[in-house]
Amino acid sequence: MSAGRALELSKQFKAIADPNRLRLVSLISSSPGSEACVCDLTEPLDLGQPTVSHHLKILVDAGILHREKRGVWAYYSVVPGALNTLAGVLSESCPTPEMRPA
Amino acid sequence: MSAGRALELSKQFKAIADPNRLRLVSLISSSPGSEACVCDLTEPLDLGQPTVSHHLKILVDAGILHREKRGVWAYYSVVPGALNTLAGVLSESCPTPEMRPA
DNA sequence: CACCGACATTGACAATCATCGATATCTTTC
DNA sequence: GAAAGATATCGATGATTGTCAATGTCGGTG
C-alpha cells in the first residue's frame, strides 16, 4: 500500500474511529428512511448540539455521510458504498480469506 | 449500538486509523508467511525503530496484531478474525445491504 | 419586520497522539 | 562474561482532537 493511499484511507478511518461518531452512523443507518436530523441525534448521544454538528461535519468531510437541507432541518444519510470500501480494505489484510486448510 | 460497544470498537478503529499503521498491517499480511519482524518494517515506512515498535504495540494492544518472539527477533502477524469483525461492523451500516429495489 | 427554532461556526481548553533521541532489556556469539 | 545486535521503554515536544459555551446564520411564522 502506497503512502498516499494509506493517508487517504486513514482520513476515513479516523472519521469513524470515535465512539460517538460510530453511534451516529449506526443511529442514522437504522433510522426510518435511513436518515436523521441533528435534533434526533443529540439526545441518544447525550451530547450538546454543537458537538453533534461538529461530528457530523467530520463524517461529511470524510465522504461517509451525506447532508441534505430540507426546510429548517438538515437530514444526514450514509453515502452508499463509502463504508463498503473501507470494509473491503480490512478484508484484504485478513488471514484465511480465500485460503482453505486442504 | 450501545455506548460501551462503540467505545470498544473505536479503540480498534483508532488503532488502524493511522497511515503508518495501515501500511504496517498491509505489509505484514503481504509478507511471506504473513509475518514480519521490526527490522523488515522500518525501511519501507521510513520511520525510526522506536516509532515502529510503538505503532506495533498499539496494534497488539488493540488485538489486531499478534507478537511472537523467536530468538532475537519479534515476529508480528495479523490476528485471524480481528479485521473481519471490524469489516462486519462497517457493512452493517451500509445502505442497500440485503435490500433490493423491488 | 420581529421572533423563534434548527443548525453551523468560532474560540478556548484539556487530553490524547505521533514522533524522535536516549536508554534499557534480552539474546546470541566470541 | 564481554560485545553486538534486535527490540522495547522512557521522556519530551509539537500537533491534533473532543468538548463546551457563546454566537452567528437562515428558514418559517405570526
Topology overview:
The structure is a homodimer of 102-residue chains.
Chain A: H1 3-16, H2 19-29, E1 35-37, H3 38-45, H4 49-61, E2 65-70, E3 73-78, H5 82-92
Antiparallel strand pairs in A: 1-3, 2-3
Chain A binds a DNA duplex (30 and 30 nucleotides) through residues 14, 18, 20, 37-39, 47-55, 57, 69, 71-74.
Give a structural overview:
The structure is a homodimer of 102-residue chains. Chain A is α+β, with helices and mostly antiparallel strands. Chain A has one domain: Orthogonal Bundle (Arc Repressor Mutant, subunit A). The first copy, chain A, is 56% helix and 15% strand. Chain A contains 5 helices and 3 strands, in the order ααβααββα. Chain A has helices at 3-16, 19-29, 38-45, 49-61, 82-92, and strands at residues 35-37, 65-70, 73-78. Chain A has a 3-stranded antiparallel beta sheet with strand order 1-3-2. In chain A, a hairpin with a 2-residue loop joins β2 (65-70) and β3. The longest helix of chain A has 14 residues, at 3-16. Chain A is elongated. The model of chain A has no long low-confidence stretch (mean pLDDT 93). Chain A binds a DNA duplex (30 and 30 nucleotides) through residues 14, 18, 20, 37-39, 47-55, 57, 69, 71-74.
